[in-house]
Amino acid sequence: MTGSEDVSLADAPTIVELSPEDVLRARGEAIANAGMGRKADHLLEVRGLSTHFSTPDGVVQAVGDVSFDVGYGETLGLVGESGCGKSVTALSIARLVPDPPGKIVAGSITFDGIDLLKLSVEDMRKLRGKEIGFIFQDPLTSLNPTLTIGYQIGEAIKEHMGLPDKAAKDRIVELLSKVGIPRAKDRLKDYPFQFSGGMRQRVMIAIALSCDPKLILADEPTTALDVTIQAQILELIQKLSTEFGTAVLLITHDLGIAAGMCDRVNVMYAGRIVETGSVDELFEAPRMPYAWGLLDSLPRIDDVRGDRLRTIEGLPPLLIDPPVACRFNPRCAYTRDICRTEEPELTVRDSPGHLARCWATEPGGWIA
Amino acid sequence: MATNQQVVGRVGVQQQPSSGVWRDAFGRLRKNRLALVGLFGILFLAFIGIFGPMITPWPYYAQDTAAVTANGFKPIPPFVDPSHILGTDQLGQDMLSRLLDGARISLTVAIVVQFVVIGIGVPIGAIAGWYSGSRIDNGLMRFTDVMYAFPDLLLIILFSVAFRETAFGQALNGLLLVFVAIGLVSWVTVARLVRGQFLSLKETEFVEAAQAIGVSDRNIIMKHLLPNGISPIIVAITLGIPAAILAEAALAYIGVGVQPPRASWGSLIAAGQPFIRSYPHLTYLPGILIAVALISFTFLGDGLRDALDPKLKGKQ
Amino acid sequence: MGRYILRRLLWLIPVIFAVTAITFVLMHAVPGGPWSNERAVSAGVQAKIDAKFRLDESIPEQYRDWVLAFAQGDFGPSFRYADRSVNAIVADGLPKSIWLGFLAFVVAVAFGIPLGIFAALGHNKAPDYISTGISVIGIATPSFVLAILLVVLFSVVLKWFPTGGWKGPDTWVLPVIALAGYQVAVIARYTRASMLEVTRKDYVRTAHSKGLQARAVVTRHMIRNALIPVVTILGPIFAFLVTGSFIIETFFGIPGVGRYYVQGIAGRDYGVIMAMTVIFALAVAVLNVVVDVLYAFIDPRIRYS
After folding, report:
1. Which of A24, A221, A284, B122 is most exposed, with the fewest beta carbons within 10 Å of its own?
2. What is the pTM of this model?
3. What are the start and end residues of each CATH 3.40.50.300 domain in chain A?
4. Which of B161, B184, B283, B300 to mutate to test the interface with C (most CBs of C within 10 A)?
5. ipTM above 0.90, yes or no
6. Which of C124, C239, C247 has the CB atom closest to B151's CB atom?
7. What is the pLDDT of residues C33-45, one digit of tens each?
8. For chain B, which domains are there?
9. In sequence order, which ranges of chain B are alpha helices (DSSP H)?
10. Chain C contacts of A207, Cβ < 8 Å?
């Protein structure tokens, strides 16, 4: 497995000289040479994932029957408001859902041809950190305050890569430089509280990338940061994922971020995926009232001053014992009887990759 | 592309019923089985402490010399003599009545000491916290440092013996003295806690808002800071009760606390100790009751702490 | 760091002064004197005795006398044990009391912390119930009750250990257990609560996301952070064990200083009372400083600020 690391670092002299596609191709060849080909069409195939939480008030169906794919090297956005289930989806993929009270009750998650849900706990542990990296939202609480950052970055390296100490340390220094921390060598022995918020998030990114994973799950990586720092961090994630050919599942509630970073976007609502498509398809021609509401709620530069901001009235539903119906229908302006009695499926709209879950916009529905 | 602006409130949107902080906490407390056990234990002790002495045939100080003489001046074991269900000691004093008196003493200590603690600790902590950083705060904190440096039992004993002969010390067979002595060493924790709460709450925005409107300092303390910061204080006070009961029992055990003929559980244990092999009931009975009291208050305190903690402690 | 320690230690001086002054006043507030309980002597003899021990001076003057003597390391004579100075009594008994308290502390920590950790790791399962059960017994049993039970069971019935005295490890076992029992429960409960709190922290989730082995997550990330608040209560516990041992000492007949304290108060033995108070107050204060320093070592955030 170390073969691919050597190839990607040595064969790609600098980012400037090679185009991203070249880097991807070189890495793909190295992987093939190392005897591990792309085992499936997509890096990550999620089918019918359902995750439930037992609470004193009942069973909360946080994620219900979610299916999507992430291609090798692709950046997929998972967009939705707070509580829609996007974070739980990411945690489910990494099997980090706290049990109790949470539990993955149905579905399959295929990662590079391996069904994650069927793996033993020990095998899953070996995969985590090595092939799947996680970037959490709040870098202040997500880093151990009593351990140096050099140590925390090196933990996964020591666990999964078996490098001798010197090589491990070199790799840590290099990771820190790559994420943009100046004078990396001097800062290995510093503690998290000695860094600013943006710097800490860079450390988190270094941790996530430490073993050169195939997939990064980024759960709102910039929500806790200043706007100016946000741009830097997002740029960094984009740059690194391209450089190493890493796929990214980017979770965010910010449509602007999704538009700028992602190749494809899934919109989630109340535990379901309600629309999916490429960035262009979704932002230019969304085909679901919730998506319309989301895009419409963004303030525009040509809005008239003094006008009220546009919102979607109402609140998301409680997910305890959800009724069989379209989950968005209480807040939708276009409902008809069928919306209240049957739940729509994800069906194709204009192009094969663009699906939406809405009776109204289906071919033959009442909205053209 | 129409917008959703035309949507008016629709039926079918499930909303969560809102409830207050106290109601939520109370709900959690009710589901905590250990806490309910503790509460039951406390109520049981309170019940027998208050009403028991009214229904037992013997007052706690009465010596049934006739019965004990008939028994050869030895204690009567429990379940032998129907007029002394739990037996007697070697003086003929009925164990049941004396145990109930002990319950009265322990529960009174538990409550009164906490009043002393609140009466001293809360004002000191509040003033120090409100004027934090000032000389008032520094002075008060230095004072608490001195009190904190005093080894607790030493001061309690010294205080108890010092005033034992005075009128104050004789009141209620020494009970008043015990209250004050234990309370004197126990208030420091609460004062520090209150001060800490004030320190952190002072900076919150709702206090800033109140000040901006011109609410007086006193009202801010009474109406905003105290109600919001009170949870850990409630917990500390409830968990301080077992310590007070223990201290009172220890004092009585070494003969410094509540004086005879009153029957603190501690003095009952001390009195029963020489007879431990032949008449163990003299020691076991008060021991069991002490255990019940300590366990009950501790469970309740734990339950309160879990219930008032907004982050549920990992329990379903 | 060094300055911080120095400042804390310097602060001890006025605190000790305040403690001793309060004790002195309380002592003399008790009506009667050291010999009130003994045979009454004629007024003339009494006056001579008073003058000899300078009991005829005013309270502030007596306090000054005491402080001066204390500054030279002299605690003065014992009124009750006419053949021994307080220094001798202290020198004889203090090491035994400290040793007893120390052993009890070690036992309390060695049992309490692991008990709490296992309870938290096996939350709501068997380890939790067992540990909570032991803790409940511990907090429900005052030290003297535990002492009685231990002696009855192990000394009288089983005859494994002697009932008292202080000669060799045999005699240490029961007193140490009786003294430590309550604290084991306190430490176990506190550790358990702290560990449960840490389990829910975000950085533990990050550690799991790196695919670390469970044992590494527990020891490197959880235990270290969970013990920080536990350390803060260890100082007062140690102080309590050393100063609160007199009930156990009396019960088991251990010739430490605790016994002398209670007798000294009852008998108005001023020298003994003052000496005990100073020593114990100093011990408590120094231990608190030690705890604070330890705290700074464990938590780098404190160290750097």
Report:
1. A284
2. 0.80
3. 7-262
4. B161
5. no
6. C239
7. 666 656 666 777 7
8. 47-55+82-312 (1.10.3720.10)
9. 21-31, 33-55, 65-70, 95-130, 135-149, 152-162, 167-170, 175-202, 205-213, 217-219, 226-253, 265-272, 281-308
10. 206, 210
